[in-house]
Structures are given as C-alpha cells and as structure tokens.
Write a structure and sequence with these properties.
Elements (H helix, E strand, L loop, with lengths): L8 E15 L2 E17 L5 E2 L1 E10 L3 E4 L24 E8 L6 E5 L14 E4 L4 E5 L14 E6 L3 E10 L1
Parallel strand pairs: 2-3
Antiparallel strand pairs: 1-2, 4-11, 5-10, 6-9, 6-11, 7-8, 7-10
Amino acid sequence: MAIADTLSGTIDIRALVTLDRAGGNVAGADVLSHKKLITLADGTGTNQASGFFGTTFTATTGGITISLADSADPLGAAGDDVPSSDPEGLKLRFLMIENLDATNYISIKKGTNGEASMLSGGTDSINLLAGGVLVWTCPAGSSAMSDGADDELLVTANTASCSVKISYIYG
C-alpha cells in the first residue's frame, strides 16, 4: 500500500502591543494590533503548500549560499538537512530567517542564481541585526523556483560566524 503525504498548517504572524496611559485627567490604552494568519492546505495553488525546510546553520564572512529549490543539498557545505519534498519548479510561499547571534549581524541578498520573488537588483541586501528576524510571505507565490537558475540566497556574517535559523514553505 502506497503512503500518501498531506500537508496542512498555519502561518501566524502577529504583533500586539498595549501602551497604558495614566496621569492627570488622561487614562486609557493605545493598542497596536497587526496580525496575518494564513491557513495552508495541501497543493500548489494560493494558500497551498506541498513541502517545507527548516534548520539552523552557521553563516560565515565568506557567505553561505542557500539553494531554495535544491532537494538534495540546499545549504551546500553548511549542512546536510534536506527539504520534506522536491521544491523544483514550485513557488516560495513563506520564508523566515532568524539571526541567533547576540552581537553580530548577517546580510541577506540574492545569490549568483538569485531568488527572484523577494529581492530585486544584484546588490540589494537586508542586514539582519543580532537577534533579528526576517519574515516574508506570498500566499499565491511568485515565480517558480528552478534549482541553479533562480533560487539562491546568500547569507553572510559580518564577523567570523553567526548561527542562523531558516524555515521556508513552498508549493
């Protein structure tokens, strides 16, 4: 009997901050609430996904290339973890990168065969400071990822090395 895998899940991104005001004749609270909830079903359409990848790796000053569509070795020399299924030809739906370092920052930009749906330009980059988190989501996806053509991110540490956690979902 064949085994059939079915993916389901929820992406829950939220900020809820309250500022209590008291003093004189002023009392009450100001609230900032911003929430994005995406429920995922199995498949390759909008709000659907078919696989995921998640691990922690060490970024270096020479940079670590992450090949998001590679099913066998997405981290190259930085690790041996593999995605839950082959991402080739599928669309990136969600990406989360967390800098676990307490002091140093990492830079995130397109690799040689740059991932095309979230960064534009060959030199554009995002600096993720110590303890920072980058979250990107596109429930409908953008362009299909192709291993070795348009799927790479380059993560570089500003000093010797930084521990980085990455998670992404595709479908």
